[in-house]
Backbone:
């Protein structure tokens, strides 16, 4: 048996239990940008308080009925996976629930990704491939950078790049409140992981 | 019970069974860039032949012993998740096997990501956050674009952006062979998914 004959583990990801409990207390629909942002910003805040991850929340919503399809929170440290940013978790969950890799597939209503902070480079690409038709952002990338998170290699004109792929972009919805969650996180000595920022250590 | 009180499913991902079977026939180490690229290009080819996904393969290797830590293949259509590009799958698996969200954490050997095709925008960001110290690419992004895949919003100077984060980049290792797998895929009418490329449909 050589070194590569091992059996590879199954990757498993589930939302923290506090999320369905919390959502049970929420309304059935979130008719405004502000209401949807309020929900995902609260998720980002609760994610810190519950100790399940970094200060980021997201959600995939139906853009016709404004129902939440799937929430997401940053689970990087609790899941042991650098991939599990809030937006990625929301996209994975929504696609699993709908049984398709394409949330924009024929027969589906349009979907919107709402995120408490502008997507990093990885989540920007993931947004393009997810099939969502709308992106709504709270805090700006520079708000995350201000507390030490790296947004990664994003083109200056990333909003145009999304629009060119048929995805509308709205920024600064509830920015102040979403950015405050980031500030609180670092003030409470929350770990800013993966922030090598140009050093090799 | 309102619309958001549902229980969210667990996201599960496992490698196709042909991968451990195939790896059992492979050497214990892959000492050259070319040998490592040969392995991941073969994975990309077998992924088409076995019908488990798109024409992309990747692997995380130890950069000291040149052992394979975890392979990855594109599982977008078979897993129903647009996130599961070959590089993402390899990163997820390697981090799960090592029990850390950071392949560059103290106490680990340096790790290298080898991919049969330059990373798209999402996988470029994921590379930054993974903790790998080296990236080795086969086919170019333009080779994937030539058959209709979209590379997404990547900055022109993406290689510099990685180098600035302490990640070395080598391109064009076995490019011709890796690009041929892409050409064969589309000639055999393989599905080029998520290629809206500027249209809203």
Residues:
């Amino acid at each position: 048996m050589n070194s590569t004959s091992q059996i590879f583990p199954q990757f498993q990801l589930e939302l923290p239990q506090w999320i369905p409990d919390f959502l049970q207390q929420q309304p059935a629909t979130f008719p405004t940008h502000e209401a949807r942002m309020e929900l995902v910003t609260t998720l980002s805040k609760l994610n810190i308080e519950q100790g399940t991850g970094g200060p980021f929340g997201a959600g995939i919503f139906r853009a016709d009925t404004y129902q939440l399809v799937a929430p997401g929170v940053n689970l990087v440290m609790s899941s042991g996976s650098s991939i599990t940013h809030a937006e990625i978790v929301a996209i994975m969950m929504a696609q699993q629930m709908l049984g398709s890799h394409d949330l924009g597939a024929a027969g589906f209503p349009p979907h919107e990704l709402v995120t408490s902070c502008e997507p990093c480079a990885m989540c920007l690409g993931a947004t393009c491939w997810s099939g969502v038709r709308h992106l709504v952002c709270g805090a700006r990338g520079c708000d995350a950078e201000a507390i030490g998170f790296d947004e990664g290699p994003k083109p200056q004109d990333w909003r145009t790049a999304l629009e060119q792929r048929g995805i509308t972009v709205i920024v600064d919805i509830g920015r102040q409140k979403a950015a405050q969650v980031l500030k609180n996180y670092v003030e409470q000595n929350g770990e800013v992981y993966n922030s090598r920022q140009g050093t090799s250590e």
Observations:
- Chain B touches chain A through 79 residues (CB under 8 Å).
- Helices of chain B lie at 18-23, 33-49, 76-79, 86-98, 121-130, 141-146, 158-163, 175-187.
